[in-house]
Design brief:
Blueprint (H helix, E strand, L loop, with lengths): L6 E3 L3 H14 L9 E3 L1 H12 L4 E2 L2 H15 L9 H13 L16 H19 L2 E2 L1 H14 L7 E3 L7 H9 L19 E7 L5 H14 L4 E5 L3 H14 L2 E10 L4 H11 L5 H10 L7 H12 L6 H11 L3 H11 L5 H20 L5 H24 L6 H6 L2 E8 L5 E6 L12 E6 L17 H6 L8 H15 E8 L14 H10 L21 E2 L5 E2 H5 L2 E3 L4 H5 L31 E2 L6 E4 L1 H9 L1 H10 L10 H21 L10 H19 L14 H23 L5 E9 L6 E2 L2 E3 L1 E9 L4 E8 L24 H10 L6 E9 L9 E5 L19 H20 L27
Parallel strand pairs: 1-2, 1-5, 3-4, 6-12, 6-15, 7-10, 7-11, 8-10, 11-12, 17-20, 22-23
Antiparallel strand pairs: 8-9, 13-14, 16-17, 18-21, 19-20, 21-22, 23-24
């Protein structure tokens, strides 16, 4: 760099280029060649390339990777957390200050233990940096300042045009060159002459897009051709407004950044990394549905169903399925493995080649739009940058995944239209690059306190920086003022502010501190008149409207306002008001207006025509709550995932007990009692192990019990202990009864009806006392409660309908099959009850010998078969509503709501 050529320093390269262009247009063409316009980083880089010591300037990616690698090694020793936030803080510290301390002796007693840890890590960083032949730009600037001061390097002619942010090294160099940035306080200026202020005030965020559409199209129709909309979420505004603006002849452009983790590339890498974790099935599904997987939609659906229905799928098996289906999975897997901790250069280079393969694949794939391809190419380039930094500096073992997830990816999209006007939607960092009078209208779409916060952005290391004798970072208030002033100055004709009265949560919003300063600036000048100003343009600017965030009344009178009541106009494609309407009958929960429910029930032939078929559990469910029955038994909203829960445990228990008793009966053992209990317990263990081994061979989704984790295996062993306790209790219960059968089927073709419906199901267990001619139904349950009991007292004449009636249903049904026996009990046995008393509930007559297991509320003080008849009559009266389509919510107890999927039901009982 020649010292004779003057250099001007700008905040961003966009401002530098724009000023060079303006100089070329306004002066003689040759004048633009007489000045070099650079950013501070470019200025230091050029000087260092000419006069440096041969080391290369470290890049931002190299810095992050090296700091992350050091944190992984020394985080515990330095008392620091190994997290992306810590990496960002320390990277900023070593960049601005840390490397300037190299070789300095510090008094450690003036620092806290954690600060000493940061300084020790910074020293390690400098040592590694020098070993890799790299140098920090701020350190290079400090070395250059010494060389300029000593005369070893000629002093360039430099001037600072913008309010640049200079670190300690650059500040030292600029002071030597006598052009250090002035620390004068910045005051918000007034609007330039000829620029009209305007205001957009939606009642809430839903109305914002429609008001902006009106504002943009009106300004464009007035002949203005270049507009800028700055927003914290410009991509959402672009997606909402690009189509209607194009229809109005206005082109749209999007210029923003998105988090890497929200790109398709980021989502795919995160999914692949999680396949071996506890949520591997969900991760595999996410990857299969990701458009970068290359898996056709039908294959993705099939894979989703297959792996969710089978709990035995482990990470390796899932990965192999994806490898066969996806043309990109192997590349993503290789990259994810390296990002989790690259072991050597070869692994990182393999991942770089995988990224190249993905980049080529993205170019040729037809499932992405042009804009999406550009975004994913940028995301892949970001990953390549970090991996390449690992290779260059040899920083192995650091976890790159969090660094990638917190990175940002540039996004640029253009939606061209036939008209001459163009509106650019950009994020807030665009304010740092604006140049004066570059847009006809500038719209700052959100001026709330959330966007321009009234707080200093101080980090945990700013105090350490001051202790070391370096200046604290720039004042955040001043930085926000300069950005806002840049937006004001960029407008040639109109400057518009937008602020919603409420946020997306419906909470009241608060204006940024800049609004009051902007209002003060407006009072110092008279706004220009224009056709767009409206009737309020002649009002004075000395009165303020508290309802419009304290802005001048003249401005609030001209504000565009929109209410959230125009919801369709605010979120629709055309942002137009409703042009017609159609009356729709009010929706009533539990009311079928168009369907005859009886048509959707299974039928069986009966003497008087077809009879609807129901299971005992369905009957019980409808009696508990008709709406709950409809949701669970007809709509069936459950997910396809194979579970490890009460239903699977219950099915396994039924199988173990059935096989145990059937095996004992085949060997001539009539019942388990105190005499053979020890031998039967040994047999129980053998049957338990045998049934458990069979579970993995069962068809996925059949209700099998498959334990995957260590905790689930502990639950299975706990279940074994519960069955031993149950067997000991059964050995003392009803000594006169023998097991007659397990899983006793009642099929529709048997012709057994209950309460007007044909019965279909299986009774868990039937015990028979042949000598007295009686039988009892035993239904195994994991747990039982008071709603299982008959709840009758001596002297009661009316029979209440129990909360649980499955056992009553099977008892009544088998009376019609076991005609030579009388029913003595319809009972529920809890195999997980901790106490003996109360582990058996339900309904039984006074003669049933329960062995001390049955509670008093389960005794029926009348003829037991008359009790069963009364229960059936009560059930029939309620079930008649089912055939009429009555499914309104009507829970009989909180138990009916416990597992009901209708979480928003107004009748839900807590």
């Amino acid at each position: 760099m020649s010292s004779a050529v003057p250099v001007e320093l700008y905040r961003t390269i966009e401002r530098a280029n724009a000023c060079a262009k303006a100089a070329a247009l306004e002066a003689a063409p040759a004048a633009s060649f007489g000045v070099r316009r650079l950013t501070p980083a470019d200025f230091v880089a050029e000087l260092w390339e000419l006069w440096g010591d041969g080391r290369a300037l470290v890049s931002a990616d190299e810095r992050k990777v090296l700091v992350a690698a050091l944190l992984r090694e020394f985080a515990a020793e330095a008392r620091l957390s190994d997290s992306p936030g810590t990496v960002a803080l320390i990277a900023r510290f070593v960049s601005n200050v840390g490397c300037l301390l190299e070789g300095q002796a510090l008094d450690e007693t003036s620092f806290t233990a954690r600060e000493r840890g940061v300084l020790a890590l910074a020293a390690q960083y400098c040592e590694r940096l020098r070993g890799a032949g790299l140098v920090e730009p701020e350190q290079a600037a400090a070395l250059l300042s010494d060389a300029v001061a000593s005369g070893e390097v000629p002093s360039p002619c430099v001037s600072v045009v913008d309010a640049i942010e200079a670190g300690a090294g650059l500040d030292r160099l600029l002071r030597v060159l006598d052009c250090s940035p002035k620390p004068d306080a910045f005051v918000l200026p007034t609007l330039a002459e000829g620029v009209e202020p305007a205001l957009v005030m939606p009642a809430g965020p839903t109305a914002l897009a429609g008001l902006l559409l009106d504002e943009i199209t009106e300004v464009a129709s007035a002949g203005e051709t270049a507009l800028l909309v700055v927003s914290p979420a410009p991509d959402r505004l672009f997606e909402s407004l690009a189509a209607p603006l194009s229809a109005a002849g206005v082109s749209s452009a999007l210029r923003c950044s998105r988090p890497f983790e929200e790109t398709l590339t980021g989502c795919a890498l995160a999914a692949v990394a999680d396949i071996d974790g506890p949520h591997g099935i969900a991760a595999a599904t996410d990857f299969a549905y990701n458009r970068l997987s290359g898996v056709p939609g039908r294959d993705a659906q099939r894979l989703n169903r297959e792996i969710r229905e089978d709990r035995t799928f482990e990470g390796a098996a899932i990965a192999e399925k994806l490898r066969l289906l996806s043309p990109t999975f192997s590349e993503f897997q290789r990259i994810a493995e390296v990002c989790a901790g690259a072991e050597d250069a070869r692994a990182a280079e393999d991942a770089l080649r995988a990224l190249d393969v993905l980049a080529e694949w993205v170019k040729g794939v037809d499932v992405l739009t042009f804009a999406e391809k550009a975004r994913e190419a940028a995301a892949l380039a970001k990953a390549q940058g970090l991996l390449a930094a690992c290779v260059r500096i040899g920083a192995w073992g650091c976890d790159l995944a969090p660094l990638l997830a917190s990175a940002s990816v540039p996004v640029q999209v253009l939606a061209a239209a036939e008209g001459g006007a163009t509106v650019e939607f950009a994020s807030l960092d665009r304010l740092d690059s604006l140049v004066p009078r570059s847009y006809d209208e500038v719209i700052v779409a959100d001026c709330s306190q959330e966007v321009f916060p009234a707080k200093a952005d101080r980090t945990a290391l700013d105090g350490l920086t001051e202790k070391l004798g370096y200046a604290r970072p720039a004042d955040e208030f001043e930085r926000e003022r300069r950005r806002f002033a840049a937006a004001m100055g960029a407008a040639k004709a109109r400057f518009t502010l937008g602020i919603s009265q409420r946020d997306e949560k419906g909470e009241e919003t608060y204006p940024a501190f800049l609004l009051s300063e902007f209002s003060d600036a407006l009072t110092q000048s008279h706004p220009p008149q224009s056709a767009l100003a409206g009737k309020g343009a002649d009002a004075g600017y000395s009165e303020f409207d508290d309802a419009a965030f304290g802005l001048p009344v003249a401005l609030s009178r001209c504000a565009r306002r929109g209410g959230e009541e125009a919801l369709v106009g605010g979120i629709g494609q055309s942002f137009a008001a409703l042009c017609g309407k159609e009356e729709v009958p009010g929706v009533a929960r539990g009311c079928l207006r168009q369907l005859n429910l009886a048509d959707f029930l299974k039928k069986a032939p009966g003497p008087d025509g077809p009879v609807a078929v129901l299971s005992a559990s369905a009957i019980e469910s409808y009696l508990s709550c008709p709406y709950g029955w409809f949701l669970k038994n007809r709509l069936r909203p459950e997910a396809p995932d194979e579970q490890f829960g009460p239903a699977e445990k219950g099915g396994f228990v039924h199988r173990v007990l059935a096989r145990l008793y059937d095996g004992l009966a085949a060997e001539g053992v009539a019942r388990v009692d105190e005499g053979n209990l020890a031998a039967c317990e040994g047999r129980l263990d053998a049957v338990f192990d045998e049934c458990l081994a069979e579970q993995r061979r069962e068809r996925p989704g059949s209700g099998r019990l498959v334990a995957r984790s260590k905790s689930e295996k502990v639950e299975v062993e706990r279940l074994r202990g519960q069955l031993h306790t149950t067997l000991r209790r059964l050995a003392t219960m009803a000594p006169a009864y023998r097991v007659h059968g397990h899983e006793v089927a009642v099929a529709p073709e048997d012709g057994i009806d209950y309460a007007g419906f044909r019965l279909n199901g299986r009774a868990d267990r039937v015990d028979v006392d042949a000598e007295d001619g009686r039988f009892a139904i035993i239904d195994y349950k994991g747990s039982v409660g008071s709603d299982y009991a008959a709840a009758m007292r001596e002297g009661d004449e009316e029979v209440p309908l129990p909360g649980r009636i499955q056992a009553d249903v099977y008892a009544q049904a088998l009376r019609r099959r076991l005609t030579d026996l009388h029913c003595a009990g319809a009972l529920y046995l809890s195999y997980s009850a901790k106490r003996r008393a109360g582990s058996l509930v339900g309904a039984a007559d006074a003669t049933y010998d329960d062995g001390g297991l049955l509670g008093a509320s389960s005794r029926v003080p009348l003829n037991f078969e008359a009790y069963l008849d009364a229960v059936e009559e009560l059930a029939a009266a309620r079930l008649a509503g089912l055939l009429r389509g009555e499914i309104a919510p009507s829970p009989r107890s909180s138990a009916a709501c416990r597992f009901c999927p209708a979480l928003d039901c107004e009748r839900r009982l807590s």
